[in-house]
Amino acid sequence: MPRFRKSQSLREFQVFVKDVYGLPNDRSYSLGNLLTQQQRFSMRALKGIRKKDRKKIKLNLLISFSWFMSIANRLHIDVEDCVWKRFPMLCSYCAGKPCRCKKIKPPKRQKVRIDNALRPHALSEFQEMFRLIYPAKSRTLADAGVHLAEEMGEVAEAIHHYYGQHLHRQFNDIQCEIADFISCAFGVANSAKIDVAEELGKMFSRNCHVCHDAPCTCNFSSITKIKT
Ligand SMILES: [Zn+2]
Ligand SMILES: [Zn+2]
Fold first, then answer.
1. What are the residue ranges spanned by the domains of the chain?
2. Ligand 1 centre and the CA of 203: distance in Å?
3. What does the pLDDT look like over 13-52, one tens digit per residue?
4. How far is the CA of 135 from the centre of ligand 1 (A)?
């Protein structure tokens, strides 16, 4: 029985999503459909921010996070690797920890040196890494939400570009944008004080969080009825 435990890694969560949702996704959802679902739940999380409803933020952010893994699975992209290459315990732009982008306004992306000895293992350690690079006190929750929406758009753009020409560098851009989205998802979680690993552990203690089957047997009409 597939389940996710709070001590597990980001990669293990991605595999869990593949085990539970890979089959129904491949049968019933195009990549565009997966993007729509992921965006739909991210937008609902943003509504939670506007309404100051932490429960709404939490549930929708987690559902969006799991649809996001389905997008990466469809593209055969290892999310954890992308995140680590883009954020090796440093801001991907100013190469600082904490990020100093606002202060020094670097004119271009700085070169980052990757020290693999610092690589987090558990998903919770990745969240902690982002807390250290981008402390919650440096922005409001609403700012974190706006940044999430911005990065969500950039993921969609990168995928559209790649589907247009199938160039290797365009595929690399998708990987970078995937890492940026994950950093913003953890950013919202850190600002809203949501422990992502712990909450995913509760939500996914037994297969799909709605039908509790693996592979998931939810159909589209039952998904639309979920109160989020
Ligand atoms: Zn920075
Ligand atoms: Zn289901």
1. 10-224
2. 33
3. 999 999 999 999 999 999 999 999 999 999 999 999 999 9
4. 11
